[in-house]
Amino acid sequence: MDNWYLHVRPIPDNSSTDLAVITEDGLLSLAVVLGSSLSLVGLVFAFITYSLFSDLRSVAGTTLMNLLASLFLTQLLYVVGAGGVQAADLCVSLALALHYSRLTVVSWLLAATHDLYRTVKSQVGMIDCPPPSLLSSFLKYSLLGWGLPALLLACAVFIQDYDGIGESGATQLRRHNCWFTSNRSFFTAFVLPYWIILAVTIYYIVRGAMAIRWAAAFAPSKKAQEKLTRRRKLQLMLFVRILVFLTLIIMAGAASVIFGSNLAFIVYSCGQAIQGILIALAVCCNCQILKLYTRSIQVAGQQVATAMTTYGSSGQELSKSASLQLLTWDRNPDSV
């Protein structure tokens, strides 16, 4: 009896350990799903906001809309791997799709910062040529935002095929819920280009800040200076916040792959899950957007007041026309 007890005693300990691991993975998956759901809702709201107002349908607004669309795609694909993907082909495909969507986010951020820098320089008069049209600018930035990540994705696919990623490689990807590609393609076709794009983005942010200062120096009056630089400073600070979010998240993801740190992986997972709602709040909660919403509410209130006034005047005319004298066939007597 004692031997039987000693023989089965370690089984509950192992099962409790497995249960703790399962519980930890389950809590992380639940946090990822909840955070990604909030991010998807926030991104949809931000995208609708930029679609509604005609004042935001510029080159800057179009680049931000594409940035929000690429973030939405990233969050949607990110939820798929939260519960774990068992099929090897599906796991590799999900890793490559996320590889592409993450690169599109930072590429569209680069396009937005470049547009800010060029717009401020054209306003100051530092560029002699006229500003390009919306269609031509959108086509050029589309080649950067969607075309460059496609080339990097092709490089990642070539490296994956050359390395022969099979079931063993998919097992390695499942440790990170298929959120990264293999190590060689991850460093060659993702981390290195990602940091290069971020460096160029920082360059245009710095040049944009300098151009804003030059624009303020050339302004004829203080009021014109504030009007010229207020909106550009809001755009610049928005791009800085988005850059900080993306940089911190990708640093945590790279640390989890390089050092195999579970803490870095948890930080990356939670940060990636809530990055959509953070960026959506940063895009929508600024003075310009709130002013547009306030103006639309005031216009709607004025339209309602006008409609009520028109309805009241028509009601008075209807009450006059409904008098007993007008309901008879006889002509009204002449007033004395």
Structure description:
There is one protein chain. This protein is mostly helical and 336 residues long. It is built from ten helices and no strands. The model is unreliable at 1-21, 318-329 and 332-336 (pLDDT under 50).
What structural category characterises the helix and strand content? mainly alpha
What integer is the average pLDDT?
77
Order of helices and strands: HHHHHHHHHH
Principal-axes shape call: globular
Poorly predicted parts: 1-21, 318-329, 332-336
Instruction: Count the beta strands.
Output: 0
The helix tally amounts to 10
Helical residues, percent? over 70%
Determine the strand fraction and express it as a percent band.
Answer: under 5%
Q: Specify the biggest β-sheet.
A: none
- The N- to C-terminal Cα distance equals 124 Å
Rounded to an integer in angstroms, the radius of gyration calculated over CA atoms is 29 Å
Question: Which secondary structure elements does this structure contain, and how are they paired or packed?
Answer:
Layout: H1 2-8, H2 10-52, H3 59-80, H4 88-124, H5 134-163, H6 167-174, H7 183-217, H8 222-258, H9 262-284, H10 287-321
Summed up:
The protein is built from 10 helices and no strands. Helix content is 82%, strand content 0%. It starts with a helix and ends in a 15-residue tail after the last helix.
